[in-house]
Structure formats: structure tokens, C-alpha cells
Specification:
alpha+beta; Arc Repressor Mutant, subunit A; two-stranded antiparallel sheet; WH_DNA-bd_sf; WH-like_DNA-bd_sf
């Protein structure tokens, strides 16, 4: 059984992720190896949660822009890494070591932080307007 780091999950609501991005993130979390490595194609991950190739591509780009998903420098095909703050680990000791290492790497500029969009005020929630009957003129 893997132990899930939860440092990043407390801020997921602030990341302004689409439904497709949340679903793709769920597929990545499900498929990860200890330490957060995921070996699957974007198409496989998208199909797992019912996303089209285009939707999966857009969702992955959003996850990468928020630094939830990290790609190797060589952009190796089919390899993704979950940010250490949301990855799973084989033991409590591994988790603690990985979180401490990640904090040091972030401070040194070697690892990006998970980023949320910066809003002065939160964008308004989409509210549906009820339809009203309108009388025709004349």
C-alpha cells in the first residue's frame, strides 16, 4: 500500500483546474509508482477517464503549467512525474525524506513549486440564468 503525500492536496481548490484536468490527475495518481513516476501515454491516461486525445492534451498542459506534473528534461515519451508534494511513497520514511528533499530543492531553485493562478479576487462563479418568457412586440 502506498502512502500519499498530502501537502499539495490542501490547495487543489485554489489551482483552478478544469474537470478534465482533475480527472487526468486522478488517473496519474492511480497509475504512479512509489515516488510519483508514471509510465503511460497521455492517450492511455485520457482514455482511462474518458477524455478525447485533444481534451487529454489540454488537461495535461494545465497540470504541467501548475507544476503538478513534471516532465523529464529530455521529454522522454510516456514518462511523467507527480510533484513530490502529491506523489505516493512506499513508506512513511520515504515520504518524509522526499518532502524534505523537495523543500530543499525548491529553495535552491532546482524544483518548481506547485503554482496557483494569482487573482486579486477570485473569478466569479458561472451562474446559470433561468430562462424567461418574453412577449413578442406588436
Amino acid at each position: 500500500m502506498l502512502i500519499q503525500a498530502s501537502a499539495g492536496f490542501g490547495m487543489l481548490y485554489r489551482l483552478d483546474l478544469t474537470k478534465a484536468a482533475m480527472e487526468l490527475l486522478s488517473a496519474l495518481i492511480e497509475r504512479q509508482e512509489p515516488g510519483g513516476e508514471v509510465n503511460a501515454s497521455q492517450a492511455e491516461l485520457g482514455a482511462r477517464v474518458g477524455l478525447s486525445r485533444n481534451s487529454a492534451n489540454t488537461a495535461m498542459a494545465l497540470l504541467e503549467s501548475r507544476n503538478l506534473v513534471l516532465r523529464p528534461k529530455d521529454r522522454k515519451y510516456r514518462t511523467y512525474y507527480l510533484h513530490p508534494y502529491i506523489a505516493s511513497y512506499a513508506s512513511q520514511e520515504e515520504l518524509e525524506e522526499a518532502i524534505e528533499d523537495a523543500a530543499e530543492r525548491i529553495e535552491a531553485g532546482e524544483l518548481p513549486e506547485i503554482t496557483a493562478p494569482l487573482y486579486e479576487t477570485a473569478p466569479p462563479k458561472r451562474q446559470s440564468q433561468p430562462l424567461r418568457a418574453v412577449r413578442a412586440a406588436g
